[in-house]
Design a protein that fits this description.
The chain is mainly beta. It is built from two helices and 13 strands, in the order H-E-E-H-E-E-E-E-E-E-E-E-E-E-E. The chain has one domain. The chain starts with a helix and ends in an 11-residue tail after the last strand.
Amino acid sequence: MTARAHRRRLASLTLVFTLLLGAASAQTRERTGTVDVVLGGEARTFHTHVQKVPENAAEGVENPDVRRMLERLAGTSQHTATWMAMEPIVMAGIVLYAAEELFITIGATVPMDAPGDVGEISLEFELDRVTLALNDSEDASIDFRFFPASWGFDAYYAASEGTFELLIDEVEQIDATTLRIRGSFSGTLSFQNSYQVAYNPDDTMSVSGTFDIEQVGGSSALELVLGD
């Protein structure tokens, strides 16, 4: 697994656990951003959140992987919109490797005051760590998924290569660990029945929208990873 794939997998797993926690204890969630989307002609709104993980979150959890994750997250605040970067590799005071990009994951659910509504979306992309512009290099990727019911590895719609356009309007540093990101997107999604995305011409859906995520959180200081 490549470093990029590993970061993507880790971000997705963290997002899943955070969303599950948020669904179970909405009173500890705080809205951090809005995604307005038109899916197949239907206008919908989704929100990102920050979730306070209870100290006892792992109690009674039988799955060992989930329990370890919850034990590690206990007592922390977890964002459903996050940035990640590889830590610099330094030896004898010399930087041998520094991340060239920030990996952004935006996970959003239906509004908390709409209990009868369901669905989630996820958007993943990379920003250049120096300019904070969208990384448009050949090996960069953009991943957009719409889950009509809830997050999962099948029964969702996704953008495949060449069917989706993302524009970043503004990236602003809010504090030592937090970004604000605004942008828009449009394209075509197709129905998927496995985690690996491939274009499915038999079941497609148009998508367009805008997003304003006021808190994109990270676990370390931005000054350690942003370029000069």
